[in-house]
Design a protein that fits this description.
It contains 4 helices and no strands. By secondary structure, the chain is mainly alpha-helical.
């Protein structure tokens, strides 16, 4: 995938040090969760966490913060609300 084919949030300077496989994993999360209701979101996140563990993909706090900032910079208010919901669910189930 060339630099110009990548989603705009992946082109942010703050995420350039994060391995591409991690960014691709997150892009898949964003794409697959787009149409889910709040009720469907938790089982989806649990399954995704399991897939991440199997693929040995984990994120440092710094990587997580950089990705969230990059996503927020290029998101609509509705997308930001959805991110906030996801982060709240993750925090409650951590």
């Amino acid at each position: 995938m060339s630099q110009t084919d990548r989603p705009v949030w992946m082109q942010e300077p703050s995420v350039q040090s994060i391995p591409q496989e991690k960014l691709d994993f997150l892009q898949k999360l964003v794409f697959e969760s787009a149409g889910l209701s709040r009720k469907e979101l938790l089982p989806f996140l649990m399954a995704l966490a399991q897939r991440g563990r199997r693929a040995r993909i984990s994120f440092t706090k710094e990587e997580t913060d950089a990705v969230i900032a990059a996503l927020r910079a290029h998101s609509t208010p509705d997308e930001i609300r959805k991110m906030d919901q996801i982060m709240k669910l993750i925090a409650q189930n951590a």
